[in-house]
Amino acid sequence: MKEPSLALRAGLVFRVGMFRKLIIALLLGSPLHAVTIPHTEAGKHIGQEVTVTGKVSSVRTIASGMTFVNFGTRGAADAFTAVAKPGVIAGETLLPYDGKDVEVTGTVELYKDSPQIVLKAPESIRLSGTAPAPQDETLDIPKPAETAPGVFEIEPLDLKLEREEVRMAGKSPSGFVPTNAEVFIAIPKDFKPQVGQRVLAVVPDFKSEEDLEKLVRQHAEVAVPKGWVVFTAHCPTPDEFPTDGLYAAVIGGTMRHLASKYPGAEDWPLFIAGSSMGAGRASLASGALIKGDFNLQGIFLCSLKWQDLTKSIKTFSPSKNAIRDMKVYVAHGEKDFYATKAQSLAETEEIREAGVKEVRHEVHPRRGGMDAASLAKALDWFAEPE
Question: Which architecture, in CATH terms, is 35-129?
Answer without folding.
Answer: Beta Barrel (2.40)
